[in-house]
Amino acid sequence: MTYVRDNIEAMNAYVPGEQMPGSEVVKLNTNENPYPPSPTAIDVMRHEMLDRLRVYPDAKAGRFCEAVGNLLGFERDWVLAANGSDNLIVMIARAALGPGRTLAQPTPTFPYYKTQALVEAAELINMPCDPESFAIDVDGLLEANADVTFVANPNSPTGVTASVGELRRLAGGLDGLLVVDEAYADFAEATAVELPRDDANVIVLRTLSKGYSLAGLRLGYAVAQPPLLQQLWKTKEIYNVATLSQEIGLAAIRDQDHMKANTEMIKASRAELAEQLTRRGCRVWPSEANFLMVAVPRGGAAACGEALKRRNVLVRYFHQPASMADKLRITIGTPEQNQVLLAAWDEAGSHSEF
Ligand SMILES: Cc1ncc(COP(=O)(O)O)c(C=O)c1O
């Protein structure tokens, strides 16, 4: 006896990275930002909130969307806020997927797209990345011509980025939606956020979880043409963005200097860590995100991840797809955290633990 649909019963749940609050662990497994958010964002929490929490939030998150629009050069109705970008992924799936409809994605990628395809009993089309460069297969995705094509750009867990020109070609050739998930765009060289101006089928997703150090706040937004956002709006929970999130997010978006200084530090540490791991015999893919995909010497990725964990350093190992079996995804920490990682790496290596 089951109380849920057969496809829900049959599917596996999304497995989030391990969280160990309050511990001494160096946490490099879920692509969080090691630096604090903007001090002005934190001030909002102290001063403005008491009476505002008594009443419901603005269901449209109007002031936040307006600030995002001002930043990017769009009218407010081109921006839709949500409870993290994963909330937007759910809304898109609710609106555009279902039995008999298709979701295409490069693999490897963010596993939550697949979760939503399974929830909606849609058909999932996996399009493997190039086994060497991990570039996405634009022609393959065009050929699949799915109802919804998800491209994380930069991609996770690879860190590899498709050019805006390639994404434009994809957008122009698809009959369905193209979702460009720019969770890591704040660490990247280019953005596809201009694409929706010309392409009515493109949705760009952004989050404050990474570049703005606000993963715990749960705030993301979509940029797309207003008629498309009006359709997504219908699938939204009524008050999906808490008042606190709207206000802190507004202050954070207005403090671009803080975000840029923060992401510049991460980018410098990214180059340094890539060099250090390469010296240790790893292959490191060029990353435009706040993490590195690293092939561990002698294929010992799983053992290396375990050896690091025994030394209180968490990194991410993905069993699937097979192309990830010899690799780790390592979030960029502070220079001090990266040193702890490397010291643990060297110690485990010297004990032949991987
Ligand atoms: C590619 C990608 N998209 C979306 C998300 C979810 O971000 P948010 O915290 O905004 O839900 C993540 C989280 O790690 C991610 O890697």
What does this structure look like?
This protein is an alpha/beta fold and 354 residues long. The chain has two domains: 6-36 and 257-350, Aspartate Aminotransferase, domain 1, CATH 3.90.1150.10; 39-255, 3-Layer(aba) Sandwich (Aspartate Aminotransferase, domain 2), CATH 3.40.640. The chain contains 13 helices and twelve strands. The protein has helices spanning 6-10, 39-47, 62-72, 85-96, 112-119, 138-144, 164-173, 195-198, 226-233, 243-254, 256-279, 301-310, 335-350; strands at 26-27, 79-82, 102-107, 123-128, 148-152, 177-181, 202-207, 220-223, 283-284, 291-295, 313-314, 327-331. Helix 3 runs parallel beside helix 10 (243-254) and helix 4 (85-96) runs parallel beside helix 5. The longest helix has 24 residues, at 256-279. The chain is globular and about 60 Å long. The N and C termini lie far apart (46 Å). The structure holds pyridoxal-5'-phosphate.
